[in-house]
Amino acid sequence: MDVLFRPGDLVLYKNNQLIAFNKPAGMPVQADLTEDKALLNLAEIYTKSKLWLIHRLDRPVSGLVLFAKTKTAQQALSADFQSRKIKKTYLAVVKNAPEQEAATLIHYLKHDAKNNRSIVLSENTPDSQEAVLHYQTLSSSDNYHLLQIDLETGRHHQIRAQLAAIGCPIKGDVKYGARRNNPDRSIHLHAWKLSFSHPVDQTPVDLVAPLPDDPLWKAFLAAIQ
Asked: Which parts of the chain register pLDDT below 50?
């Protein structure tokens, strides 16, 4: 994707240990096989220092990405992610309304590396991982539905695969059953909120990433304010 902004425009939060960005859809977090600029590269140019990955977002997903400025902070927050101490909240737009307005989804996901997707299983197998999320319907229009997803685990393509498994693929996500791509090849999944304890003084940190500048996201803006 072409970079049409300054990296500083994407900064949501920063201090001596951490920096958070609102990643545009279509930008990879790390360098990949394309020659497109990755958020990590741009962030290191902006900070003029090495940064450490704490978590990732899929390329077509927008929203909050948190980097550590020190190895110690990275280790502390990575451990908090692993132990599920960090609260991760996403927004998703789907074409089909889920049967229940709110529910907890528990599946087992098997990573298909060849096709870069996750296969949803109803039972545990030796090469699968438990995936748990909680969703609620925030708003509906004539054609689409806005879901809030609180992610308990953090598996590969978890939200995309689990919503597709209940017949609610995310808008634009043809990999998981959407009928057509979005024109910019994004999907309507946004990493909205991140809540955690600061790795040094343990004070609570609550971050919110504004929604993308997109007509459909804007149509649902009132539902989250």
From this structure: 1-2
Q: Confirm if 201 and 17 have CB atoms less than 8 A apart.
A: no
Is the full-model pTM beyond 0.70? yes
Catalytic positions are 58
Contact assessment for residue 61 and residue 189, using Cβ atoms and an 8 Å cutoff: yes
The answer to whether the beta carbons of residues 45 and 39 sit under 8 Å apart is no
Listed in sequence order, the residues at least 6 apart from 168 whose beta carbon sits closer than 8 Å to its beta carbon are 94, 95, 96, 97, 98, 145, 147
Number of domains in the chain: 1
Separation between Cα atoms, residue 6 and residue 190, nearest integer Å: 20
For residue 178, what is the domain's CATH number?
Answer: 3.30.2350.10
Q: Residue 68: name the closest of 76, 57, 58, 80 by CA.
A: 76
Q: Is residue 205 part of a domain?
A: yes
Fill in the DSSP letter of residue 170. B
User: Concatenated DSSP letters for 12-45?
Assistant: EEE-SSEEEEEEPTT--SS--SS-PPPHHHHHHH
**Model pLDDT for residues 84-105, shown as the tens digit of each residue:** 899 999 999 999 999 999 999 9
